[in-house]
Design a protein that fits this description.
177 residues, alpha+beta, OB fold (Dihydrolipoamide Acetyltransferase, E2P), 6 helices, 7 strands, globular
């Protein structure tokens, strides 16, 4: 067996290269749900359908204010989630979502977002009414009568809080701007 010498500089660069890898959260672009809605709402596929599930969840992150509103997921939205997770070949995953939280954007408009039960207690303990938080959202799709406005569903995949701001600043620092 023949040994091949490796320059020391190469060995020193390996840990640096590994630590410089971008976080998986970097795929969450700074983007509002309204931009996704505006991009898709007038397409023939959306207007002519009563159920739209997306294979591309357009990972997005945006700041909202928590209003303090929490409610069980309404039946029509629950039905959508059930169909959505069948479409995504994750049947039964809809049961991971039992509630929605009400968030208010900078424009003053309120939106409801389903949140996973496993994350809900942390959310409630870390985010108080009136607090600003960055939500990491996945677009699930939309539903509503053909040729009529749709109800657009965005799922909370993660969130920031005062307790986690340093972590998120470090985590997102690896993202290429």
């Amino acid at each position: 067996m023949r040994l091949v010498p490796i320059p020391l500089a190469t060995l020193l660069c390996v840990p640096i290269a590994l630590s410089a890898q971008a976080s998986k959260w970097c795929s969450y672009q700074l983007r509002a749900p309204d931009s996704i809605i505006a991009w898709h709402a007038q397409s023939e596929d959306v207007r002519g359908s009563d159920f739209i599930a997306t294979a591309n969840p357009f990972p997005s992150r945006i700041s909202y204010y928590f209003t303090g509103g929490v409610r069980p997921i309404p039946d029509q939205r629950r039905d959508f989630l059930q169909k959505y997770f069948v479409f995504r070949q994750r049947k039964g995953s809809d049961t991971l979502f039992q509630r929605e939280v009400e968030m208010k954007g900078r424009d003053g408009r309120s939106l409801w977002f389903p949140i996973q039960e496993a994350m809900f207690e942390d959310f409630k303990s870390e985010v108080s009414p009136g607090d600003s938080t960055t939500l990491f959202l996945l677009w699930a799709g939309a539903f509503g009568p053909k040729e009529h406005p749709k109800d657009w569903i965005f799922l909370i995949n993660e969130f920031t809080s005062a307790r986690s701001r340093k972590f998120w600043a470090d985590e997102l620092a690896s993202c290429v701007q």
